[in-house]
Automatic annotation (TrEMBL):
UniProtKB keywords: Membrane, Transmembrane, Transmembrane helix
Record-given protein name: Stage V sporulation protein AE
Domain of life of the organism encoding this protein: Bacteria
Keyword Transmembrane attributed: yes
Transmembrane parts of this sequence: 6-22, 29-49, 94-113
Amino acid sequence: MLDYIMSFLVGGAMCLIVQIIIDKTSITPGIILVSLVTLGVILGAFNIYDVLIRYGKAGATVPLPGFGNSLAKSTIKEVKSSGLIGAFTGGIKGTAGGITASIFFGYIMALIFNSKTKG
């Protein structure tokens, strides 16, 4: 039960901070998205993001910084095993499952639901 609470608190805190940034600044959503992934890469490279994952579980791994952390960890691992080429292949190998799942389930939802454009 504590895992669920901590996941909610960590993930909720991330969402709260981003929502405040969206509401109080004129920073575009694209810049926020890239900044969150980059922040996850930086924190993951220095093993700081591991502390968030230890306490926040899915609340830390599911948001965009968690994706950045996955990129960093898999790239570092691949560079250690394959050398410089791992800098180009590590992120792709490490995040392929999540990206494939999001494309697959997005396609399934597009088939099931009748989406409409705003306007």
